[in-house]
Amino acid sequence: MSDTTAPNGRRIAVLGEMLELGDDALQAHRDVGRMAADHGVDLVVAVGGGMAKQLALSAGAAGVPDLALVADNDTAAALLEQVLQPGDVVLIKASRGGMLWQIAQQLTGQPVTGIDGKPLAPSPPTEAV
Q1: Contact, 107 vs 80, CB < 8 A?
Q2: pLDDT over threshold 60, residue 5
Q3: Are 45 and 15 in contact (CB under 8 A)?
Q4: Residue 40: which of 72, 66, 73, 79 has the closest Cα?
Q5: I need a labelling partner for 88 at 20 to 30 A (CA). Which of 4, 10, 41, 115 fits?
Q6: Which residues contact 6 (CB under 8 A, 6 or more apart)?
């Protein structure tokens, strides 16, 4: 993430789990959390499960002032829609398997695509019983 932002903007990093790291996974996720702090990130949104939690904990311990841990891309996009302000700079990064591009697609009103690049079918409405 660049060391510059727009005036009065925050640095927000939306970081998903890095897949296929094997034995290095835990340390790599902790390192990314520390790197977010080193680069002056104001908010880390960690997306995923256990490794995302480790990333968020490491970021907080290293000085990132605001943290969010969410389970999935839809929740991350909903959170960002609530907290984004003019001038904020957002970095979205994870393994391809995390499909975090879906967050950017949702925020910009684009069709949400799957790993194959094809638009996802909308979820059928749920009926009350």
Answers
A1: yes
A2: no
A3: yes
A4: 66
A5: 115
A6: 87, 88, 89
What CA–CA distance (Å, rounded) separates 111 from 109? Answer: 7
In the prediction, which pLDDT does 128 show? 62
CA distance 58 to 40: 14
Average pLDDT for 104-125 = 80
What DSSP assignment string belongs to 77-112?
A: HHHHHHH--TT-EEEEE--GGG-THHHHHHHTTPPP
Contacts 24+ apart (CB under 8 A), 30-37: 30/54, 30/55, 30/57, 30/58, 31/58, 32/58, 33/57, 33/58, 33/59, 33/60, 33/61, 33/62, 33/64, 34/58, 34/59, 34/62, 36/1, 36/62, 36/64, 37/62, 37/63, 37/64
124 or 38, greater pLDDT:
38
Distance between CA 128 and CA 116 in Å, rounded?
33
Q: Which two tokens stand for residue 67?
A: 């943290």
